[in-house]
Design goal:
Blueprint lengths: L3 E10 L3 E4 H5 L6 H8 L3 E4 L6 H16 L8 E5 L10 H9 L5 E5 L5 H14 L5 E9 L9 H4 L4 E11 L4 E8 L7 E2 L19 E2 L1 H23 L8 E4 L4 H11 L10 H4 L6 H11 L8 E8 L3 E8 L1
Helix pairs in contact: 3-4, 7-8
The chain binds coenzyme A.
The site of coenzyme A has 18 residues, from α2, α6, α7 and β12.
């Protein structure tokens, strides 16, 4: 009998503070109109001083566990997709594991930039399918605004903070049907933050600790790559475009999302869009969108969900899920 990983429940968390496009007009030479028409973003949440990625992920994870009716002590795995960990080590997943009271099970972070949650989900899925893990808490969370250069209008308008989580459980009935994970380090210079441990903590007037991005190139590669990725995911799951009930894409740019929907031949009514409210929360984006869709009643049990993400690395990853 095949063992599948099924999503039992979801959760999410956002910082309280909302920063609108109008607020950003006061900080950099931009306009609400430019941001909306180029990206679809209207506002984003920004973490308070002292509020960390781990705090947001903890809240999302706690909510998912509560809704799943799963005790933290029953978890075999705690995994967090993030590129903005609280500290360099221990892994933020270990800090969360301890706060939840899941001590003893494996806990680790996955850094695949914006594809972090999708990578974490793919890893957890394979641990469950092989029988090594029965219950996993999989989270994606970021406080990306911490490394945004608020003087750089090309990037500061794009990002926000947030977290999402799912509880996975081993079952006999289909759950996650396929996952596809990819990276091409040849594109490392298109989207990166150069500050690190081994290269040294270079922080020249905060210009080192910042997101560097070649937006136009990233945009083009994202559209092309996601186009191929959704085809690959359908094939891996043995499905057709018409089998997809909901596309739950990475929330970076509405125009990229629309291009992927077009490729799938599905109307925007079947696409979960939260980029207007959350902006790009990197690893937080897909699980945050999923939880929003579940709580709004849009996503229902038995439906087929296509999740995908794209980010620095470059990385790209997807999952086809029977919810
Ligand atoms: N406000 C106003 N004008 C801005 C601006 C802002 N916030 N940011 C850039 N501009 C200007 C540019 O300076 C440029 O001016 P110029 O023509 O006088 O040189 C003009 O707007 C067009 O810039 P361009 O970069 O060509 O715009 P674009 O249509 O490609 O949109 C992005 C820019 C960043 C929105 C778009 O490229 C994008 O979304 N790329 C993908 C980024 C992404 O998703 N990254 C994360 C992946 S996980």
């Amino acid at each position: 009998m095949t063992t599948y990983a099924r999503i039992v429940a979801t959760g999410s968390a956002l910082p309280a503070r909302v920063v609108t496009n109008a607020d950003l007009e006061k900080v950099v030479d931009t306009s609400d109109e430019w941001i909306r028409t180029r990206t679809g973003i209207r506002e984003r949440h920004v973490a308070a001083e002292g509020e960390t990625t781990g705090d947001l992920a903890f809240r999302a994870g706690q909510q998912a566990l509560k809704d799943a009716g799963v005790k933290a002590s029953d978890l075999d795995m705690v995994v967090l997709g993030t590129t903005t960990p609280d500290i360099i080590f221990p892994a933020t997943a270990c800090l969360i594991q301890n706060r939840l009271g899941a001590n003893g099970c494996m806990a680790f972070d996955v850094n695949a930039a914006c594809s972090g949650f999708m990578y974490a989900l793919g890893i957890a899925n394979n641990f469950i399918r092989t029988g090594q893990v029965k219950r996993a808490l999989v989270m994606g969370a970021e406080t990306l605004t911490r490394m945004v250069d608020w003087e750089d209008r090309q990037t500061c308008v794009l990002f926000g903070d947030g977290a999402g989580a799912v509880v996975l459980e081993a079952t006999d009935a289909p759950g996650i049907l396929a996952t596809c994970l990819h990276a091409d380090g040849g594109y490392k210079d298109l989207l990166y933050n150069p500050v690190g441990v081994s290269v040294g903590f270079k922080d020249e007037k905060n210009h080192g600790v910042r997101i560097n991005m070649k937006g136009r190139e990233v945009f083009k590669i994202a559209v092309k790559t996601l186009d191929a990725l959704v085809g690959e995911t359908l094939t891996a799951a043995g499905m057709q475009e018409t089998d997809v009930d909901w596309l739950i894409p990475h929330q970076a740019n509405l125009r990229i999302i629309e291009a992927t929907a077009k490729r799938l031949g599905i109307s925007m009514e079947r696409v979960i869009v939260t980029v207007d409210k959350h902006a790009n929360t990197s690893s937080g984006s897909v699980p945050l969108a999923l939880d929003t869709a579940v709580r709004s009643g849009k996503v229902r049990r038995g439906q087929n969900l296509l999740l995908e993400a794209f980010g620095g690395g470059l990385t790209w990853a997807s999952a086809m899920i029977r919810y």
